[in-house]
Amino acid sequence: MKKLTKPEFARLREKTRLALAGRDPTDSYGFVNPPIVRGSTVVYPSTEDFLVRKARYSYGTAGSPTIDALLAAADTMEGGAGVLACSSGLLACTLPTLAFLRAGDHFLVTDSVYHPMRNFCDRMLPRYGVEVTYYDPLIGAGIAELFKPNTRAVWTESPGSQTLEVQDIPAIVAAAHAREIMVMMDNTWAGSALVVAVSTSVSFASSRAGLMLRMMSSLPFMVSPVTTGRSLTARMVRLTVAAVSKPSPAAICAGVRSPTQ
Prior knowledge:
Helix content is 33%, strand content 13%. By secondary structure, the protein is an alpha/beta fold.
């Protein structure tokens, strides 16, 4: 199997792209799935290369071939502006709030939110000066009535973790965008096999990979597909809080193919 160029890859049909995503035979010595690459410090050919960071990788927490394979596969599924791998599902949900909310902001959260995320909203965000209001997950366009001058973002989850309500995401997005309010979505239960986050026009979407990829296992990482140009800010926050995935669970990216085919 030769390495395909981006134009060649783009011409393939969806199921073929999903089967090949994250697999680079030139990097894995011909093995179907990428090997697990562990490491921290990177050796540079020369001092000059080190000073300008002239290398594919700069440090273990900044990426590796294994992590890149996971991100490539996930990005093919999501079709967004980029994908970040975090160290847990909860952190993938909280990462957008850490990146974009600030003191004085108002945050609207669906009442059917993933319970650990609710704990974060109740116990942590108020300590940083963020006001949290829970809303009826079936509110739809009526969410506009809850907007305040300082409303910064809306958190959605469809279906919801606790009671599985299916939200009217297009109506919520339309109401929020009319006021230049960001919409974030936990897309775990629907998954990209049913709902491609970028097609909903949300700003940021999260998926708890332990549920999305292997229903009977618990992966210690989470994939957060960024669906707008805000990826740089999210990446900086992720590195600041060391919210990085480990290479061993990332190697399970081969399981990405099972729920999409």
